[in-house]
Amino acid sequence: MAKMHVKMTVNGTQVEALAEPRTLLIHFLREELGITGPHIGCETSHCGACTVDVDGRSVKSCTMFVGQANGASVTTVEGLVNPDGSLGVLQEMFREHHGLQCGFCTPGMITRAHRLLQENPNPSEEEVRFGMSGNLCRCTGYQNIVKAIMAAAAVLRGEKEAAE
Predict the structure, then answer these.
(1) How far is CA 104 from the centre of its chain?
(2) What is the per-residue pLDDT across 74-133, written as a single tens digit (0 to 9) for each?
(3) Which residues form a coiled coil (predicted)?
(4) Are residues 41 and 10 located together in one domain of the fold?
(5) Which range of residues forms the domain containing residue 63?
């Protein structure tokens, strides 16, 4: 099959490559670019382990062709770290509030939570639960994930004491 020229910004860096048009974005990120934060889970868009941010939208990268992301800005969990390489607020709150266990779903959870908080910086617990409902976790029972997201929202709003 003929390859197409693909150009996009991934985690703030411009990338260019040749890829088969039928290549899924998750495979392009992991296999061509070496970005392994997003995980391949169900490959049917049910689990959300592959969630990335594409042009300001949460996208399950196992159901998007690389050609659909051509020219786009893609952010993965790796792109959510602080400029100095330290953990970003969401990553730190997931760590502090034990919002992960095995860690398989965590990159997709954090990336989805990032977009959720961009869309709604002051969500209720119910809004967090609804906003995260497309991302599944088999380990945690979600309570600590919700606590981590609520704490991150408070920190991002400047209410650090509310997050503790």
Answers:
(1) 12
(2) 999 999 999 999 999 999 999 999 999 899 999 999 999 999 999 999 999 999 999 999
(3) none
(4) yes
(5) 4-80
